């Protein structure tokens, strides 16, 4: 099981005081660098378009992180695809994939950060149709250098090439989901890896939805290996190792667990210690648990 | 006078052979790092959307460069603004400005890289109207955190905030121009610094256009300091110092000269030597010339 961190670039600290924005991004890049050093598998940066956050352009932030890291995978968490042009989104993450030598990933979501809709001229009531259409285009671009595509919410493509092409083929694209059954079905139909946001409550209540995802995926001819499940959860790490292992078990096996940190901007020393703790305690314990159970 | 380099990320070498794309971007970031070390003032990365280039997302590439440099200014050269959403463009470069602690700039242009128009669903015949409208929005976003704006080619903004805000206020935005008199007038009317692409022929033939820019700017109440002129020219550096000083003189004073290199992908060792040469010979000679003339 891979272990990661998802972070927002919050513009305010725990006491609602504004932080120095340049310093905040510098610290975020340092955190990603440190997570790489201690052996974490993935680091995700959120996307928001409001005053409380500094992360409207995650690919640019991750570009900086790519230049200071060696092994860690770099991902959006999550790309607000409904309000984005899939051509630009693919170009940004393909560029990140080149800069990081094959370590870029995207998690794409339907309805997070809804302030993006009016900002980019989309209607919130179209959010499901927008997402379905844009995901279709994004996956078409991933599969084809030259794109034939038409839809309702974006001008048609009539064979134009989309560049650069990424190192990874295919570039990993996860579907980020909350609790909507339809989203689990969609991920299964498309054979996309699933990233489940478990923000509160008992993880095991997601088991039926994850089973639905796997069953749908199998019906559509995808292998168990393609139907990966990741879990995104709140957590300040300390006592979560045992919990994480239990959750993974309860959900029928999990490929990645990612801890959401820094919804407010924590002091840098706390964040660095939390990253240390994941590297020193959580990773070895999870790997040991996997060895013990032969997984 | 500032001295810079503009580079494309070409996907092919001098012999039209494909280069390794990840390696090519790594080398480009190394070049920017080296240009920073030898004291160059600015490094620009082009934007293209075709198979021959890897630079469709310059802000992501410059994000990587921001994480490895200390003083050098990082700029697009040029942003294809006519085919871009100004909100995203501003977000990308504001993020770069935070990551680089106030070293980001944009050069925006009207008609370069025309392959971007069909790719993003715009009509090439609208290119002047598109550019005027999008430049207006970009400058409005630069001046106002909350934006009231409406136009023909992009959904209206009715007070939405655009974030993050950059370190530099205002974020430097140059107008990139070729030989069209109307473009020089536009830059003067808006009081924007002017980046003149001199690709062939005698630089002094641009003098009347630059005078027109300065006169227009003065008429609109801008100071000589605001009406900066930069020159972007081809050049492999060796014998260009004297030439550069002469050109600056012929054009009535130039704030920045930027050498276009690497339209094809030169071997890395050649590029690094050229950067060395600029740092070791061009910079001191130009600074000496400025001291001699009291500028």
Poorly predicted runs of chain A are none
**CATH level-1 class of chain A:** Alpha Beta
* Pattern of helices and strands of chain A: EHEHEEHEHHEEEHEHEHEH
Helix content of chain A: 40-55%
Q: Mind telling me the CATH superfamily name of chain A?
A: Luciferase-like domain
Which structural class best describes the helix and strand composition of chain A? alpha/beta
What is the CATH architecture term of chain A?
A: Alpha-Beta Barrel
> How much β-strand is present in the residues of chain A?
15-25%
Number of helices of chain A: 9
What does this structure look like?
Two copies of one chain form a homodimer. The first copy, chain A, has a single domain (2-293), classed as Luciferase-like domain (TIM Barrel), CATH 3.20.20.30. The termini of chain A are close together. An eight-stranded parallel barrel of chain A has the order 1-2-3-5-8-9-10-11, surrounded by six helices. In chain A, strands 6-7 form a two-stranded antiparallel sheet. The first copy, chain A, is 41% helix and 18% strand. In chain A, a hairpin with a 7-residue loop joins strand 6 (146-149) and strand 7 (157-161). The relative contact order of chain A is 0.15. The first copy, chain A, has nine helices and eleven strands.
